[in-house]
Design brief:
Elements: H1 2-23, H2 27-48, H3 74-104
Length: 114
C-alpha cells in the first residue's frame, strides 16, 4: 500500500511539473517545474525499487540461499546519481538565466524578442 502511495505521489509531482512548464513564462518558474518533475521521477523510481519485507543486500553470517528476499539497490543508486546530475543542471540553468537577465533585463519569455 505504501508503495502505491509513493508511486502516485511521484506521478502527481511529475504532472504538477509539466503543468508549470507548459503554463508559465517566467524562466525561474519553469526551472521549478523541471525540478518538481525530477523529484517526482526520483520518488517513483525509489517506490518501484522497494518491496515490503525486503532486506538490505548485505551478506552476513545469517545469509543463506533461502533468504534471497533482498531489495534491489540499483534504483537507489540511480536516484542518488540523478540527484547529483540534477543539482549540476539546475546550477547551469540558473547561470544561463542570470546571463539572459543581464542581456534582456527580464526573465520572461516574450514573443517580440524585446
Amino acid at each position: 500500500m505504501e508503495t502505491i502511495l509513493f508511486a502516485l505521489s511521484g506521478l502527481s509531482l511529475v504532472m504538477v511539473g509539466i503543468f508549470g512548464i507548459l503554463t508559465k513564462k517566467n524562466i525561474i518558474k519553469i526551472l521549478l517545474g523541471l525540478n518538481l518533475m525530477e523529484t517526482g521521477i526520483n520518488l517513483f523510481v525509489v517506490a518501484m525499487g522497494f518491496f515490503k519485507g525486503g532486506k538490505t543486500p548485505i551478506i552476513t553470517e545469517s545469509f543463506t540461499a533461502s533468504t534471497m528476499h533482498f531489495v534491489d539497490p540499483l534504483p537507489h543508486a540511480l536516484v542518488l546519481t540523478s540527484i547529483v546530475i540534477g543539482l549540476g543542471t539546475t546550477a547551469l540553468a540558473l547561470t544561463l538565466t542570470l546571463n539572459y537577465f543581464r542581456e534582456h533585463k527580464h526573465i520572461e519569455f516574450r514573443g517580440d524578442n524585446a
